[in-house]
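Slide 14.
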Amino acid sequence: MPGNIYEMLWDCPSCGSKKLLGKTHRFCPNCGSPQDASKRYFPSDAEKILAKDSEYFGADRVCAYCKNATGAKAKFCAACGAPLEGTAEVPRIGAAAPPASPAPASKGRKWLWVSASAGAAALAFIAVFLSWTKPVSLVVGSHSWTREIRVERFQEVREEAWCDSMPHDARSVSRTRRVRSHRQVHDGEDCRTVRRDRGDGTFAEEEQCSPRLRKEPVYDDECRYAVDRWAHVRSEKKSGSLPMAPSWPEVRPARAGNCLGCEREGARSELHDVRFRAGDKELSCTLKGGGEWEAFQPGSRWEGRVRALTGGLDCGSLKAGRS
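Slide 15: predicted structure.
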């Protein structure tokens, strides 16, 4: 609900008079210039003046001829006498909190701002410098490879999960109460005073409230249990160098099948370590599995880019060179 009604303020652009009353002073009391309704502003708390009652309540209307503002119930413009029927209301200032006292600027804050700006510029320069690369011609000196097969065993493992998502074949179950999530709950209101322009040279102060929320933990049962699953137990690896073609290691499971203690082959992976010569320097790239490794035969020529700061090879820039 609206509280007290106060006068807006305005400054005379003709003679420079400051803090004239928005409703009382329709014309400057010092030079007679008309008030510009669009230039009204809210006063500070110390400058608030209660507005006097007037029969011309409601938002002011703007004269279509001289653009001056006149009270809502007036039928003719107080400045030029033109009829006001059908004219628009003055634009209003949006709701705002009472102005806070400005904190004096300190040299420390100014120096902090300068330091932050300088730091940001330095970081930008470093980022550009780190990404700077230059071209280089390369020759493959050596190409080594490693291939790996993970071996899995069907055995009892211990797992944990929320009890409502526990697998159906779980056994030896123990439960623990834990926080699973959080929810927002109502915890009162936060209120503040706001100012609303009434459009007639005055403003009202009213209380505006919004709900305050807090996080509340939601508890649930977490289960720890035993279950039979395929689990990684070891890896079989094989390594070599080109021109010897890569091949996979032999896997000998302790027992085949789907019984407890049975083993099987799991995921396969491979890495290729390619070493290049660039003049008197040696550079390297590590490639994952795929057919692209076949092109990196010893003695083959490549073009790439090296990072100016670290001297490291940008492996994504490699292109086959001229023979």
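Speaker note: Residues 144-320 form one domain.
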